[in-house]
Amino acid sequence: MEKNDKMRKIVFMLLTALTPCLVTAQNNQLEVEIQADIVSKSLWRGQDLGGVSLQPKADISWNGIYLNATGSTGFDASTSEYIDVYVGYRAPFGVNISAGSHWMKGLDQLDRYFYFKSTETGHRFEVNLGYTNKYFSLQAYTTVTGNDFKPDTNKRAYSTYVELNVPFRIGGFDWLATAGFTPMESSGWYEPYENPHSFSKEIYQYYYADGFSCVQAALRVTKNLSINDFGIPVFVELNTNPFSKKAAFVAGFSLKPFQKSCCKKNNK
């Protein structure tokens, strides 16, 4: 069986599992949320993807079934772009499950989005399982197909990322503590490396890390400003990657034009 056929089978099984949720749904309304973030530095699961970026987000849900899309576009050519698209289900008791794609510019030399050859595509298809309550959120993501192989081998890496988020409120501000881990060696890529003290002209950059590691430890503080129908959260964040020994101090704000229900049953 081809790798793409395996991915189709996984997605089909997930959607089949979600079908009973659609059939038994009682509350026929559509929830829509859109948002755009402007950030001083683009970060993704502990990775530094470049400088100032525009990061749009959209979430459409109906009785727990949701379609979520996020992305990032930099203001200069050195900033990496990505697009994340997921379909999943959020249960009333806090459990969520989804499947989707993380596409990153640069993995495919021609930057084709609709190109899926596993050793060349810019896509990594992953599954997500998580749990959220008012005290914390714990999410796990595992790549199941796409461009995800161990260094210098043809073996699939199944790159995995686990993230714990703990929100709290102090002094009238909203705070968020984040810890991100990988339990094992992930995939990666070679990049040009110029060092007068080294004969090597390339360096291997891991997608997450070379084994069990903390790849993100961050603390964000947010103050929400409301102007008419717009909510404008302004935030600063200290973000570190203990594995790569890097740190960044980031600032940004979000634009949220609306967050409302629409399309109720019998509405015209």
Structure description:
The protein is mostly beta strands and 268 residues long. Helix content is 8%, strand content 55%. The protein has 1 helix and 17 strands. A 12-stranded antiparallel barrel has the order 1-4-5-6-7-8-9-10-11-14-15-16. It has a two-stranded antiparallel ribbon with strand order 2-3. Strands 12-13 form a two-stranded antiparallel ribbon. The longest helix has 22 residues, at 3-24. The chain is globular.
Q: What coarse outline follows from CA principal-axis ratios?
A: globular
| Lateral strand order in the biggest sheet | 1-4-5-6-7-8-9-10-11-14-15-16
What kind of sheet is the major sheet? 12 strands, antiparallel, barrel
Rg: 20 Å
SSE series: HEEEEEEEEEEEEEEEEE
Helix share bin: under 10%
Record keyword descriptors for this entry.
single chain, 268 residues, mainly beta, 12-stranded antiparallel barrel, two-stranded antiparallel ribbon, 1 helix, 55% strand, disordered C terminus
